[in-house]
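pinned: reference chain
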Amino acid sequence: MASFLSILWLLTVHAFVGMLLIPIVGLKMASTGWRALRYYAGGREYVRRGPSHLLLRTIVAPVVVVSTIALLATGVVLLVHGATAGPIVGLHKASAIDGD
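pinned: its C-alpha cells
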C-alpha cells in the first residue's frame, strides 16, 4: 500500500509539472520558429548571424520538435482519459527520448 501511494504521488507531480511545461515549451518553439522564419525570409539581423548547423536544422531539430509535441500531447490525452495503461502510455513513453 505504501508503494502504491508513493507512485500515485509521483504521477500526480509528474502530471502537474508536465502541464506547467506546455506553455513554456510552446513559447520556446514559437520563438525559435520565428527566428527561423525571419532568417529564411531574409531578415537582415537574422541573416547576419547566419544559419544554425546543417545537422541541427535537418535532423536534430525536427526529431526534438516531433517527439516533444508527441510527449506533451499524449500526456494530455492520458490525463483527460485517466488512462494508466494501453497504447497511449506506450506512445508517451516512446516519445520521451531518454536512452532507456
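why pinned: The chain has a mean pLDDT of 88. The radius of gyration is 18 Å.
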